[in-house]
């Protein structure tokens, strides 16, 4: 029957959904507003290796994500947590050492960077099946067909699966007929994962913190970073520290953020922290491919997996999907993949 499906958003959920539907012989087209695929998976390549500016970790209970990784032949390695951690309670005092719990859940990273999932999924499609730099502006139900309008063209399709964050979806696309008011209200108050995050990474020639029997793990109540982890690669050939900044640092420019992060690293690890090779950061709130101008505060994962997202619309021809719509793992990579399998099973 060769039914056609347009998938809006070329992130993990969109690409996985397209891959699963293509296996079922549907004609799939992925429309991505950005110049790159991956969404909130963003592995920055530098002269020192790869640095994760987006999604980074997975765990053994992420069964659907692990299933996908296994099918794609992707290797994992355990996050380095050997050594003591540091905690900064007050800016006037030195960080305190403490031992990490021995029985904590192990976390894992993808050997060649999280972007490896995206790269391997992309190999499943032809160039004609992936449209980059096309921003969808309107979705219209026209009898038994859906018209999709972008900044470059218009398309007809049997089904549309929207995998972009719900808040961004309803603020950037015009729907005709209008979506139910209750759905619109929920979408406006659905938290977008990573929207409040500023990821940063600092690369070094050596993992000098290990000489102090430190794991590279750090926490701070005063900032500018709030969490910190060893970010060395699987082969132990490149070394880095990576973490999360206080969200308020989004108001500052990159040079200021870098200066303050290095100062804090010196406080944690000593003068060797100034001898960095590269510094990278990513304030996700400034990324219009996931974020809106809304300044309303939302609780983490607010309305993620809401029951309204489990329904279909436009005579069952429009499905709202993506990580935020997952009932169990809303906002995470596991949620993105789990929802992809769930949606694909509806076809």
Key attributes of the depicted protein:
about 350 residues, alpha/beta, FAD/NAD(P)-binding domain, Polyamine Oxidase, Chain A, domain 2, 2 domains, seven-stranded mixed sheet, six-stranded mixed sheet, 22 strands, elongated
Overall description:
This protein has 347 residues and is an alpha/beta fold. The chain folds into 2 domains: 1-40 and 116-194 and 302-347, FAD/NAD(P)-binding domain (3-Layer(bba) Sandwich); 42-113 and 196-289, Alpha-Beta Complex (Polyamine Oxidase, Chain A, domain 2). It has helices spanning 12-23, 63-72, 115-122, 166-172, 181-188, 254-269, 333-344, and strands spanning 4-8, 27-31, 43-46, 49-52, 58-59, 76-78, 84-88, 96-98, 107-110, 130-131, 136-142, 145-150, 154-157, 159-162, 174-176, 198-204, 214-220, 225-230, 239-245, 278-283, 312-313, 318-320. The strands form 5 sheets. A 7-stranded mixed β-sheet has the order 8-7-17-18-19-16-20, covered by helices on one side. Strands 10-2-1-14-22-21 form a 6-stranded mixed β-sheet, covered by helices on one side. Strands 13-12-11-15 form a 4-stranded mixed β-sheet. Helix 1 packs parallel to helix 3 (115-122), helix 1 packs parallel to helix 7 (333-344) and helix 2 packs across helix 7. The radius of gyration is 21 Å and the shape is elongated. The two termini are 13 Å apart.
């Amino acid at each position: 029957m060769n039914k056609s499906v347009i998938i809006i958003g070329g992130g993990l959920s969109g690409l996985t959904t397209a891959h699963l539907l293509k296996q079922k012989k549907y004609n799939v087209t992925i429309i991505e507003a950005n110049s790159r695929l991956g969404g909130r998976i963003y592995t920055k390549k530098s002269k020192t290796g790869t640095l994760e500016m987006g999604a980074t970790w997975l765990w053994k209970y992420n069964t659907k994500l692990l299933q996908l990784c296994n099918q794609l032949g992707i290797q994992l390695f355990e996050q380095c947590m050997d050594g003591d951690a540091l905690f900064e309670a007050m800016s006037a005092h030195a960080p305190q050492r403490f031992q990490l719990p021995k029985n904590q859940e192990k976390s894992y990273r993808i050997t060649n960077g999280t972007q490896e999932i995206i790269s391997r999924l992309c190999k499943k499609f032809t160039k004609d099946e992936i449209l980059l730099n096309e921003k969808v502006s309107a979705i219209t139900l026209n009898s038994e067909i859906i018209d999709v309008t972008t900044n470059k063209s218009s398309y007809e399709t049997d089904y549309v699966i929207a995998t972009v964050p719900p808040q961004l979806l309803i603020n950037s696309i015009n729907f005709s007929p209008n979506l139910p008011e209750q759905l619109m209200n929920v979408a406006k108050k659905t938290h977008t994962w990573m929207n409040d995050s500023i990821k940063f990474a600092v690369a070094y020639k050596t993992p000098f913190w290990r000489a102090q029997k430190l794991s590279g793990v750090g926490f701070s109540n005063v900032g500018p970073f709030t969490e910190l982890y060893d970010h060395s690669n699987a082969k132990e050939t490149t070394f880095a520290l990576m973490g999360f900044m206080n969200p308020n640092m989004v108001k500052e420019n990159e040079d200021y953020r870098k200066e303050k992060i290095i100062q804090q690293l010196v406080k944690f690890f000593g003068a060797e922290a100034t001898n960095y090779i590269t510094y990278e950061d990513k304030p996700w709130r400034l990324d219009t491919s996931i974020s809106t101008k809304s300044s309303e505060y939302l609780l983490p994962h607010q309305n993620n997996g809401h029951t309204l997202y489990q329904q279909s619309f436009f005579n069952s021809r429009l499905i709202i999907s993506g990580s935020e719509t997952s009932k169990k793992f809303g906002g995470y990579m596991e949620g993105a993949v789990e929802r992809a399998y769930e949606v694909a099973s509806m076809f």
